[in-house]
Amino acid sequence: MDIKEKLKKLQDTVKTLEGVVIAFSGGVDSSLVAKVCYDVLGEKALAVTARSETYPAYEYEEAKKIAKEIGIPHMTIDTSELGIEGFANNPPNRCYFCKSELFGKLKEIAKEKGYKNVADGANLDDTGEHRPGLDAARELNVRSPLKESGLRKADIRQISKYLNLSNWDKPSYACMSSRFPYGQTITEEKISLVAAAENYLRSIGLRQFRVRHHDTIARIEVLPEDIPALLQDGTRKEIVKKFKEIGYKYVTLDMEGYRSGSMNEVLNKKG
């Protein structure tokens, strides 16, 4: 299918929602869902962003900006993942707890305001990854228009660019909880540490990266093509200096480079 056919299929899927509350993070996926839902359903579409300890302030500001750009009605709610029983212990199905609470709250909003469905930004590529949140979506009958339309990440970026969404090429983002090895307790203090480290890397011009938190060790993942720049003596020393000021004892660079969900590699190797 060409881009217009892919968009038409997504629009047809969205029509079946009739009225929808969208789990809106401001990322590429949920932004496309919000855009097409608003274009097709108008005021029968509502974008809802959940603020929490694991959702950085800069992401929230970006979400507000994109919602305004789209024109869709936008609502903000406050959640606390760390307050969910079992979440802070960081088990492999951590995301299930988070999504269950989030989708539950969105279902309540939909019922209260008269929207027929709740939708998320899951796409076809997500089905091949470790995504416990998909189980929560299925249990609560949350619709996934991108996945239902057979769209993958590359399709989503292509359609978003075609529709002139300003964040079509925004780097992939994941909840801050994904920075911690499974089984390591997640706290606000640890999240703040990682956030400060990632804010610094963003300030020096990096776009796609992660800081993985291993107790006193920071493991930096960047795109392979960015590795040489970080190893330049002046840059390397500045990063080490800054990370130690933030609170890390040791600063490492992962030579394999950035890859989404690298903390899941230990799960894939079990058995």
TrEMBL record:
Q: Which NCBIfam families match?
A: ATP-dependent sacrificial sulfur transferase LarE
Task: Tell me what this protein is called.
Answer: NAD/GMP synthase domain-containing protein
Q: Which residues form the NAD/GMP synthase domain?
A: 10-80
Coiled-coil spans are none
- Matching InterPro entries: LarE, NAD/GMP_synthase, Ni-pincer_cofactor_biosynth, Rossmann-like_a/b/a_fold
The active site lies at: C175 (nucleophile and sulfur donor)
Q: Which Gene3D superfamilies match?
A: HUPs (3.40.50.620)
**Biological-process GO terms, alphabetical:** purine nucleotide metabolic process
| MF annotations from Gene Ontology | sulfurtransferase activity
